[in-house]
Amino acid sequence: MRLIVATRLLTQLSFVLFPSVLSVLGAPNSGVGRRATVCNGHAELCDKSYGSVVSVGSHDSYAIAAGSSNVTTQLDDGIRMLQMQAHNENGVIKLCHTACVIFDGGTLQDYLTEVKSWLDANPNEVLSLLIVNSDSVPVSTYDEVFKSVGLDTMGFIPPSLPLPALSWPTLGSMIDSGKRLVTFMDHEADGSVPYIIDEFTNIWETAFNVVDPTFDCNVNRTNTQVETASQMYLINHFLDKIILGNPAPDIEKLNVTNAATGPGSLGAQVETCVAQNSKPPNFLLVDFYEFGQGSVFQVAADLNGVQYTPTKPIATPVQGGASTSSSAQTSSRPLDNGDNPVLNFSWESILSLMSVVTAVLAGPQFLL
Ligand SMILES: *[C@@H]1O[C@H](CO)[C@@H](O)[C@H](O)[C@H]1NC(C)=O
Ligand SMILES: *[C@@H]1O[C@H](CO)[C@@H](O)[C@H](O)[C@H]1NC(C)=O
Ligand SMILES: *[C@@H]1O[C@H](CO)[C@@H](O)[C@H](O)[C@H]1NC(C)=O
Ligand SMILES: *[C@@H]1O[C@H](CO)[C@@H](O)[C@H](O)[C@H]1NC(C)=O
Fold first, then answer.
1. Once rounded to an integer, what is the mean pLDDT over residues 257-281?
2. Of 42, 59, 87, 237, which residue is the catalytic one?
3. What is the rounded distance in angstroms from the CA atom of residue 368 to the CA atom of residue 364?
4. 3-state DSSP call for residue 350?
5. Percent of the chain beyond pLDDT 70?
Protein backbone atom coordinates (compact mmCIF):
# COMPACT_ATOMS: atom_id res chain seq x y z
CA MET A 1 0.00 0.00 0.00
CA ARG A 2 2.73 2.38 1.05
CA LEU A 3 4.60 1.40 -2.10
CA ILE A 4 1.61 2.30 -4.23
CA VAL A 5 1.26 5.67 -2.57
CA ALA A 6 4.97 6.29 -3.01
CA THR A 7 4.76 5.28 -6.65
CA ARG A 8 1.87 7.64 -7.21
CA LEU A 9 3.69 10.47 -5.55
CA LEU A 10 6.74 9.76 -7.63
CA THR A 11 4.61 9.58 -10.73
CA GLN A 12 3.04 12.93 -9.96
CA LEU A 13 6.37 14.52 -9.14
CA SER A 14 7.97 13.11 -12.23
CA PHE A 15 5.08 14.38 -14.25
CA VAL A 16 5.91 17.87 -13.14
CA LEU A 17 9.61 17.39 -13.65
CA PHE A 18 9.94 15.10 -16.64
CA PRO A 19 6.77 15.13 -18.71
CA SER A 20 8.46 13.93 -21.88
CA VAL A 21 10.09 10.97 -20.14
CA LEU A 22 6.77 9.94 -18.67
CA SER A 23 4.94 10.25 -21.93
CA VAL A 24 7.19 7.47 -23.14
CA LEU A 25 6.83 5.42 -19.97
CA GLY A 26 3.13 6.10 -19.65
CA ALA A 27 2.19 3.50 -22.23
CA PRO A 28 1.17 -0.09 -21.50
CA ASN A 29 0.61 -0.64 -17.81
CA SER A 30 -2.51 -2.01 -16.27
CA GLY A 31 -1.10 -2.01 -12.77
CA VAL A 32 -2.79 -0.58 -9.72
CA GLY A 33 -2.36 3.15 -9.37
CA ARG A 34 -1.83 3.72 -13.04
CA ARG A 35 -2.27 7.32 -14.03
CA ALA A 36 -2.40 8.19 -17.68
CA THR A 37 -0.22 11.19 -18.33
CA VAL A 38 -0.99 11.56 -22.02
CA CYS A 39 -4.56 11.14 -23.23
CA ASN A 40 -5.51 11.09 -26.90
CA GLY A 41 -2.08 12.48 -27.62
CA HIS A 42 -2.05 15.34 -25.14
CA ALA A 43 -1.34 15.70 -21.42
CA GLU A 44 -3.82 18.59 -21.33
CA LEU A 45 -6.71 16.30 -22.25
CA CYS A 46 -6.31 13.85 -19.34
CA ASP A 47 -8.24 16.08 -16.94
CA LYS A 48 -10.93 17.05 -19.42
CA SER A 49 -14.34 15.44 -19.38
CA TYR A 50 -15.07 13.19 -22.35
CA GLY A 51 -18.13 15.42 -22.77
CA SER A 52 -16.01 18.50 -23.41
CA VAL A 53 -13.36 17.05 -25.70
CA VAL A 54 -13.74 17.57 -29.45
CA SER A 55 -13.13 14.59 -31.73
CA VAL A 56 -13.05 14.23 -35.49
CA GLY A 57 -15.34 11.48 -36.73
CA SER A 58 -15.17 9.55 -39.96
CA HIS A 59 -18.51 9.23 -41.74
CA ASP A 60 -18.98 5.73 -43.18
CA SER A 61 -15.57 4.88 -41.81
CA TYR A 62 -15.41 1.40 -43.35
CA ALA A 63 -16.04 2.59 -46.89
CA ILE A 64 -12.54 1.89 -48.11
CA ALA A 65 -13.71 1.30 -51.64
CA ALA A 66 -15.32 4.72 -51.60
CA GLY A 67 -11.95 6.32 -51.15
CA SER A 68 -11.20 6.14 -47.45
CA SER A 69 -8.11 4.81 -45.78
CA ASN A 70 -8.43 1.62 -43.73
CA VAL A 71 -9.50 1.96 -40.14
CA THR A 72 -5.97 1.60 -38.74
CA THR A 73 -4.73 4.46 -40.89
CA GLN A 74 -7.74 6.58 -39.98
CA LEU A 75 -7.06 6.08 -36.29
CA ASP A 76 -3.33 6.64 -36.70
CA ASP A 77 -4.11 9.89 -38.48
CA GLY A 78 -6.30 11.09 -35.61
CA ILE A 79 -9.89 9.99 -36.23
CA ARG A 80 -11.49 9.37 -32.80
CA MET A 81 -15.05 8.58 -33.79
CA LEU A 82 -15.84 5.87 -36.30
CA GLN A 83 -19.32 6.09 -37.77
CA MET A 84 -20.71 3.07 -39.57
CA GLN A 85 -23.91 1.82 -41.10
CA ALA A 86 -24.65 -1.75 -40.05
CA HIS A 87 -26.88 -4.17 -41.93
CA ASN A 88 -28.22 -7.62 -41.27
CA GLU A 89 -27.02 -9.88 -44.07
CA ASN A 90 -28.45 -13.35 -43.49
CA GLY A 91 -27.90 -13.10 -39.76
CA VAL A 92 -24.41 -11.60 -40.01
CA ILE A 93 -23.87 -7.93 -39.19
CA LYS A 94 -22.10 -6.29 -42.09
CA LEU A 95 -21.02 -2.75 -42.74
CA CYS A 96 -22.56 -1.82 -46.03
CA HIS A 97 -23.44 1.26 -47.89
CA THR A 98 -27.15 1.57 -48.30
CA ALA A 99 -27.43 -2.16 -49.01
CA CYS A 100 -24.76 -4.84 -49.10
CA VAL A 101 -25.35 -5.46 -52.79
CA ILE A 102 -24.18 -1.92 -53.53
CA PHE A 103 -21.22 -1.64 -51.26
CA ASP A 104 -20.08 -4.41 -48.97
CA GLY A 105 -17.61 -3.10 -46.41
CA GLY A 106 -17.11 -6.49 -44.76
CA THR A 107 -18.32 -7.87 -41.47
CA LEU A 108 -18.61 -5.93 -38.24
CA GLN A 109 -16.50 -8.64 -36.65
CA ASP A 110 -13.55 -8.09 -39.00
CA TYR A 111 -13.88 -4.37 -38.60
CA LEU A 112 -13.96 -4.52 -34.80
CA THR A 113 -10.99 -6.90 -34.80
CA GLU A 114 -8.96 -4.16 -36.45
CA VAL A 115 -10.31 -1.60 -33.97
CA LYS A 116 -9.36 -3.89 -31.06
CA SER A 117 -5.80 -4.30 -32.38
CA TRP A 118 -5.44 -0.57 -32.64
CA LEU A 119 -6.78 0.04 -29.13
CA ASP A 120 -4.41 -2.60 -27.74
CA ALA A 121 -1.48 -0.95 -29.49
CA ASN A 122 -2.57 2.51 -28.31
CA PRO A 123 -3.44 2.19 -24.62
CA ASN A 124 -3.71 5.92 -23.96
CA GLU A 125 -6.55 6.55 -26.38
CA VAL A 126 -10.29 6.90 -25.91
CA LEU A 127 -12.28 6.02 -29.03
CA SER A 128 -15.95 6.43 -29.90
CA LEU A 129 -18.07 4.36 -32.26
CA LEU A 130 -21.35 5.53 -33.74
CA ILE A 131 -23.37 2.68 -35.15
CA VAL A 132 -26.33 3.32 -37.42
CA ASN A 133 -28.40 0.21 -36.84
CA SER A 134 -30.07 0.26 -40.24
CA ASP A 135 -31.88 -3.06 -39.95
CA SER A 136 -32.81 -2.71 -36.27
CA VAL A 137 -30.74 -5.73 -35.25
CA PRO A 138 -31.17 -6.42 -31.51
CA VAL A 139 -28.31 -5.14 -29.36
CA SER A 140 -27.76 -8.66 -28.02
CA THR A 141 -26.52 -9.64 -31.50
CA TYR A 142 -24.03 -6.78 -31.44
CA ASP A 143 -22.99 -7.86 -27.96
CA GLU A 144 -22.04 -11.29 -29.32
CA VAL A 145 -19.79 -9.68 -31.93
CA PHE A 146 -18.16 -7.32 -29.43
CA LYS A 147 -17.56 -10.30 -27.11
CA SER A 148 -16.08 -12.40 -29.88
CA VAL A 149 -13.37 -9.80 -30.49
CA GLY A 150 -12.90 -8.88 -26.82
CA LEU A 151 -14.19 -5.33 -27.07
CA ASP A 152 -17.08 -5.75 -24.62
CA THR A 153 -14.72 -5.43 -21.66
CA MET A 154 -13.41 -2.12 -23.00
CA GLY A 155 -16.88 -0.65 -23.36
CA PHE A 156 -17.59 2.35 -21.17
CA ILE A 157 -20.83 1.97 -19.20
CA PRO A 158 -22.45 5.28 -18.20
CA PRO A 159 -23.25 5.41 -14.49
CA SER A 160 -26.67 6.88 -15.33
CA LEU A 161 -28.64 7.80 -18.42
CA PRO A 162 -28.85 10.18 -20.03
CA LEU A 163 -25.45 11.40 -18.98
CA PRO A 164 -25.20 15.20 -19.34
CA ALA A 165 -22.13 16.30 -21.32
CA LEU A 166 -20.21 17.54 -18.32
CA SER A 167 -20.99 14.47 -16.18
CA TRP A 168 -18.86 12.26 -18.39
CA PRO A 169 -15.62 11.15 -16.73
CA THR A 170 -12.26 12.56 -17.74
CA LEU A 171 -10.30 10.92 -20.52
CA GLY A 172 -7.63 10.13 -17.93
CA SER A 173 -9.99 8.18 -15.71
CA MET A 174 -11.47 6.32 -18.67
CA ILE A 175 -7.99 5.30 -19.79
CA ASP A 176 -7.02 4.30 -16.25
CA SER A 177 -10.12 2.14 -15.91
CA GLY A 178 -9.57 0.48 -19.29
CA LYS A 179 -13.13 1.47 -20.30
CA ARG A 180 -12.07 3.62 -23.21
CA LEU A 181 -14.38 2.56 -26.01
CA VAL A 182 -17.63 4.54 -26.12
CA THR A 183 -20.24 2.96 -28.36
CA PHE A 184 -23.32 4.90 -29.41
CA MET A 185 -26.18 3.45 -31.45
CA ASP A 186 -28.92 5.44 -33.17
CA HIS A 187 -31.76 3.13 -32.17
CA GLU A 188 -32.48 -0.19 -30.41
CA ALA A 189 -30.00 0.66 -27.64
CA ASP A 190 -32.48 -0.17 -24.90
CA GLY A 191 -29.96 -0.53 -22.07
CA SER A 192 -29.96 -4.33 -22.13
CA VAL A 193 -26.32 -4.22 -23.26
CA PRO A 194 -25.11 -1.41 -21.02
CA TYR A 195 -22.01 -0.42 -23.03
CA ILE A 196 -24.13 0.09 -26.17
CA ILE A 197 -25.41 3.56 -25.44
CA ASP A 198 -28.44 5.24 -26.97
CA GLU A 199 -27.17 8.06 -29.13
CA PHE A 200 -29.99 10.56 -29.14
CA THR A 201 -30.58 10.77 -25.41
CA ASN A 202 -26.93 11.78 -25.08
CA ILE A 203 -26.10 13.51 -28.37
CA TRP A 204 -28.03 15.77 -30.69
CA GLU A 205 -27.10 16.15 -34.34
CA THR A 206 -27.26 18.83 -36.99
CA ALA A 207 -28.86 18.03 -40.35
CA PHE A 208 -27.18 15.43 -42.53
CA ASN A 209 -26.96 15.03 -46.31
CA VAL A 210 -26.70 18.80 -46.41
CA VAL A 211 -26.40 20.34 -49.88
CA ASP A 212 -26.12 23.97 -48.74
CA PRO A 213 -22.47 24.74 -47.92
CA THR A 214 -23.46 27.33 -45.32
CA PHE A 215 -24.08 24.41 -42.87
CA ASP A 216 -26.36 25.69 -40.13
CA CYS A 217 -26.05 24.53 -36.53
CA ASN A 218 -29.66 23.83 -35.68
CA VAL A 219 -30.83 20.77 -33.77
CA ASN A 220 -32.02 18.29 -36.39
CA ARG A 221 -32.23 14.93 -34.60
CA THR A 222 -32.38 14.28 -30.88
CA ASN A 223 -34.52 12.67 -28.24
CA THR A 224 -37.02 15.42 -27.56
CA GLN A 225 -37.42 14.29 -23.95
CA VAL A 226 -33.93 15.53 -23.18
CA GLU A 227 -32.80 19.15 -22.81
CA THR A 228 -30.43 19.72 -25.74
CA ALA A 229 -28.35 22.29 -23.83
CA SER A 230 -27.12 19.54 -21.50
CA GLN A 231 -26.34 17.08 -24.28
CA MET A 232 -23.20 16.59 -26.30
CA TYR A 233 -23.65 17.36 -29.97
CA LEU A 234 -22.40 16.22 -33.35
CA ILE A 235 -22.15 18.17 -36.58
CA ASN A 236 -22.60 16.37 -39.88
CA HIS A 237 -20.04 18.34 -41.82
CA PHE A 238 -20.12 16.56 -45.17
CA LEU A 239 -21.43 18.27 -48.24
CA ASP A 240 -23.60 16.42 -50.69
CA LYS A 241 -25.00 17.17 -54.08
CA ILE A 242 -28.01 15.57 -55.66
CA ILE A 243 -27.22 13.11 -58.43
CA LEU A 244 -29.93 10.99 -60.04
CA GLY A 245 -32.24 12.16 -57.30
CA ASN A 246 -29.98 10.95 -54.50
CA PRO A 247 -27.51 12.75 -52.28
CA ALA A 248 -23.87 11.90 -53.02
CA PRO A 249 -20.64 13.38 -51.66
CA ASP A 250 -19.61 16.61 -53.34
CA ILE A 251 -16.08 15.40 -53.93
CA GLU A 252 -14.89 18.42 -55.90
CA LYS A 253 -15.53 20.64 -52.89
CA LEU A 254 -13.81 18.46 -50.28
CA ASN A 255 -10.79 20.69 -49.86
CA VAL A 256 -13.07 23.62 -49.16
CA THR A 257 -15.50 21.65 -47.00
CA ASN A 258 -12.77 20.15 -44.82
CA ALA A 259 -10.78 23.38 -44.52
CA ALA A 260 -10.12 25.10 -41.21
CA THR A 261 -11.30 28.50 -42.46
CA GLY A 262 -13.30 30.10 -45.22
CA PRO A 263 -16.89 29.95 -46.46
CA GLY A 264 -18.30 26.42 -46.38
CA SER A 265 -15.44 25.13 -44.23
CA LEU A 266 -15.49 22.98 -41.12
CA GLY A 267 -14.04 25.92 -39.23
CA ALA A 268 -16.89 28.15 -40.40
CA GLN A 269 -19.58 25.70 -39.23
CA VAL A 270 -17.84 25.36 -35.89
CA GLU A 271 -17.90 29.17 -35.53
CA THR A 272 -21.61 29.18 -36.25
CA CYS A 273 -22.07 26.47 -33.64
CA VAL A 274 -20.02 28.17 -30.95
CA ALA A 275 -21.92 31.42 -31.52
CA GLN A 276 -25.24 29.60 -31.28
CA ASN A 277 -24.56 27.13 -28.47
CA SER A 278 -21.74 28.75 -26.48
CA LYS A 279 -19.77 25.53 -26.73
CA PRO A 280 -18.14 23.66 -29.57
CA PRO A 281 -19.53 20.45 -31.04
CA ASN A 282 -18.15 17.27 -29.44
CA PHE A 283 -17.97 15.39 -32.69
CA LEU A 284 -17.04 16.75 -36.12
CA LEU A 285 -18.23 14.11 -38.57
CA VAL A 286 -16.55 14.48 -41.97
CA ASP A 287 -16.19 12.59 -45.23
CA PHE A 288 -12.78 11.75 -46.64
CA TYR A 289 -10.88 13.43 -43.80
CA GLU A 290 -7.65 13.05 -45.81
CA PHE A 291 -8.62 16.07 -47.93
CA GLY A 292 -7.24 19.24 -46.41
CA GLN A 293 -4.01 17.61 -45.25
CA GLY A 294 -4.96 17.54 -41.61
CA SER A 295 -7.15 20.65 -41.56
CA VAL A 296 -9.97 18.78 -39.81
CA PHE A 297 -7.60 17.75 -37.01
CA GLN A 298 -6.30 21.30 -36.78
CA VAL A 299 -9.85 22.51 -36.15
CA ALA A 300 -10.33 19.96 -33.36
CA ALA A 301 -6.93 20.73 -31.80
CA ASP A 302 -7.71 24.45 -31.73
CA LEU A 303 -11.03 23.75 -30.00
CA ASN A 304 -9.29 21.46 -27.52
CA GLY A 305 -6.62 24.07 -26.84
CA VAL A 306 -3.77 21.77 -27.87
CA GLN A 307 -1.09 21.86 -30.54
CA TYR A 308 -1.68 19.80 -33.65
CA THR A 309 1.65 18.13 -34.30
CA PRO A 310 1.17 15.07 -36.52
CA THR A 311 4.13 12.68 -36.46
CA LYS A 312 3.62 11.79 -40.11
CA PRO A 313 1.73 13.31 -43.01
CA ILE A 314 -1.96 12.53 -43.30
CA ALA A 315 -2.74 9.71 -45.70
CA THR A 316 -3.15 10.70 -49.32
CA PRO A 317 -6.76 10.60 -50.48
CA VAL A 318 -7.38 7.36 -52.33
CA GLN A 319 -10.23 8.29 -54.62
CA GLY A 320 -10.99 5.65 -57.18
CA GLY A 321 -10.24 2.71 -54.90
CA ALA A 322 -13.71 1.53 -55.84
CA SER A 323 -12.27 -0.06 -58.95
CA THR A 324 -11.45 -3.15 -56.90
CA SER A 325 -15.16 -4.03 -56.71
CA SER A 326 -15.24 -4.73 -60.42
CA SER A 327 -18.19 -6.94 -61.10
CA ALA A 328 -20.54 -5.89 -58.35
CA GLN A 329 -24.13 -5.42 -59.38
CA THR A 330 -25.61 -2.23 -58.15
CA SER A 331 -28.98 -0.83 -57.40
CA SER A 332 -30.24 2.29 -55.78
CA ARG A 333 -31.72 2.14 -52.34
CA PRO A 334 -35.46 2.43 -52.54
CA LEU A 335 -36.40 5.61 -50.72
CA ASP A 336 -38.59 5.36 -47.69
CA ASN A 337 -41.72 5.74 -49.76
CA GLY A 338 -40.58 2.77 -51.82
CA ASP A 339 -41.20 4.34 -55.21
CA ASN A 340 -37.63 4.98 -56.28
CA PRO A 341 -36.87 3.13 -59.52
CA VAL A 342 -34.29 0.37 -59.23
CA LEU A 343 -31.16 0.99 -61.25
CA ASN A 344 -29.16 -1.96 -62.46
CA PHE A 345 -25.82 -1.67 -64.16
CA SER A 346 -22.34 -3.05 -63.80
CA TRP A 347 -19.85 -1.34 -61.55
CA GLU A 348 -17.18 -1.21 -64.24
CA SER A 349 -19.33 0.52 -66.79
CA ILE A 350 -20.14 3.20 -64.25
CA LEU A 351 -16.50 3.68 -63.37
CA SER A 352 -15.68 4.29 -66.96
CA LEU A 353 -18.42 6.91 -67.21
CA MET A 354 -17.34 9.39 -64.59
CA SER A 355 -15.92 9.55 -61.12
CA VAL A 356 -18.86 11.48 -59.76
CA VAL A 357 -21.22 8.65 -60.58
CA THR A 358 -18.74 6.28 -58.98
CA ALA A 359 -19.16 8.31 -55.85
CA VAL A 360 -22.89 7.85 -56.01
CA LEU A 361 -22.50 4.11 -56.05
CA ALA A 362 -19.48 3.53 -53.90
CA GLY A 363 -19.69 6.32 -51.44
CA PRO A 364 -23.17 7.73 -51.23
CA GLN A 365 -24.60 9.20 -48.10
CA PHE A 366 -28.12 7.94 -48.63
CA LEU A 367 -28.47 7.22 -44.96
CA LEU A 368 -26.54 8.32 -41.98
C1 LIG B 1 -3.90 -0.05 -43.85
O2 LIG B 1 -3.39 0.72 -44.90
C3 LIG B 1 -1.99 0.98 -44.78
C4 LIG B 1 -1.62 1.99 -45.83
O5 LIG B 1 -2.11 1.62 -47.08
C6 LIG B 1 -1.25 -0.35 -44.90
O7 LIG B 1 0.15 -0.14 -44.80
C8 LIG B 1 -1.71 -1.27 -43.79
O9 LIG B 1 -1.12 -2.54 -43.94
C10 LIG B 1 -3.22 -1.42 -43.78
N11 LIG B 1 -3.59 -2.10 -42.56
C12 LIG B 1 -4.54 -3.03 -42.51
C13 LIG B 1 -4.77 -3.64 -41.18
O14 LIG B 1 -5.17 -3.38 -43.49
C1 LIG C 1 -33.34 17.68 -40.68
O2 LIG C 1 -32.55 17.86 -41.81
C3 LIG C 1 -33.13 17.39 -43.02
C4 LIG C 1 -32.12 17.59 -44.10
O5 LIG C 1 -31.02 16.83 -43.86
C6 LIG C 1 -34.41 18.15 -43.29
O7 LIG C 1 -35.01 17.61 -44.44
C8 LIG C 1 -35.33 18.00 -42.09
O9 LIG C 1 -36.47 18.81 -42.30
C10 LIG C 1 -34.64 18.45 -40.82
N11 LIG C 1 -35.51 18.16 -39.69
C12 LIG C 1 -35.62 18.99 -38.65
C13 LIG C 1 -36.53 18.54 -37.56
O14 LIG C 1 -35.02 20.03 -38.59
C1 LIG D 1 -7.07 19.29 -52.71
O2 LIG D 1 -5.81 19.81 -52.35
C3 LIG D 1 -4.73 18.94 -52.68
C4 LIG D 1 -3.46 19.53 -52.11
O5 LIG D 1 -3.46 20.90 -52.19
C6 LIG D 1 -4.66 18.75 -54.17
O7 LIG D 1 -3.61 17.89 -54.51
C8 LIG D 1 -5.98 18.16 -54.63
O9 LIG D 1 -5.97 18.06 -56.03
C10 LIG D 1 -7.13 19.02 -54.20
N11 LIG D 1 -8.35 18.30 -54.51
C12 LIG D 1 -9.42 18.89 -54.96
C13 LIG D 1 -10.58 17.99 -55.24
O14 LIG D 1 -9.49 20.10 -55.12
C1 LIG E 1 -29.59 -6.92 -62.86
O2 LIG E 1 -28.75 -7.45 -63.86
C3 LIG E 1 -28.44 -8.82 -63.70
C4 LIG E 1 -27.50 -9.24 -64.81
O5 LIG E 1 -26.68 -8.20 -65.23
C6 LIG E 1 -29.72 -9.64 -63.74
O7 LIG E 1 -29.42 -11.00 -63.48
C8 LIG E 1 -30.66 -9.13 -62.68
O9 LIG E 1 -31.91 -9.81 -62.77
C10 LIG E 1 -30.91 -7.63 -62.84
N11 LIG E 1 -31.72 -7.16 -61.74
C12 LIG E 1 -32.77 -6.35 -61.93
C13 LIG E 1 -33.48 -5.93 -60.67
O14 LIG E 1 -33.13 -5.98 -63.01
1. 98
2. 59
3. 10
4. helix
5. 75
Whole-number Å distance between alpha carbons of 192 and 142: 11
Which residues make Cβ contacts (< 8 Å) with residue 232, sequence separation at least 6?
51, 165, 168, 202, 203, 204, 282, 283
Tell me the whole-structure pTM to 2 decimals: 0.79
Selection from 136, 125, 91 nearest residue 109 by Cα? 91
Rounded distance between C-alpha atoms, residue 209 and residue 247, angstroms: 6
- Three-state secondary structure call for residue 210: strand
Q: Is 327 a pocket residue for ligand 4 (Cβ < 6 Å)?
A: no
Taking alpha carbons only, the member of 6, 27, 28, 9 closest to residue 17 is 9
Residue type, 219: V
Give per-residue pLDDT as tens, 189-227: 999 999 999 999 999 999 999 999 999 999 999 999 999
Instruction: Average the pLDDT over each of 59-68, 243-252, 351-360 and give the range with the smallest value.
Output: 351-360
Q: What is the mean pLDDT of the chain?
A: 81
User: Mapping DSSP to helix (H, G, I), strand (E, B) and coil, where does residue 216 land?
Assistant: coil
Go through the domains of the chain in sequence order and give each one's CATH number: 42-362 (3.20.20.190)
- Report which ligand 2 atom has the smallest distance to the Cα of 221: 13
Write phi, then psi, for 30 (nearest 5 degrees).
-105, 15
pLDDT tens-digit series, residues 88-125: 998 999 998 777 777 778 999 999 999 999 999 999 99
Amino acid letter, residue 206: T
Q: Which ligand is nearest to the CA of 329?
A: 4
Question: Do 234 and 204 form a contact (C-beta atoms < 8 A)?
Answer: yes
- Whose C-alpha lies nearest to ligand 1, atom 7? 73
Ligand closest in space to the Cα of 218: 2
Q: Are the C-beta atoms of residues 236 and 206 closer than 8 Å to each other?
A: yes
- Residue 150 CA to residue 144 CA, distance in Å, equals 10
In 3D space, the residue among 52, 42, 40, 75 whose CA is nearest the CA of residue 289 turns out to be 75
Q: 69 C-alpha to center of ligand 1: Å?
A: 8
For residue 337, what are the contacts with CB-CB under 8 A and spacing of at least 6?
none
316 pocket-lining for ligand 1 (C-beta < 6 Å): no
The amino acid present at 360, given as its one-letter code, is: V
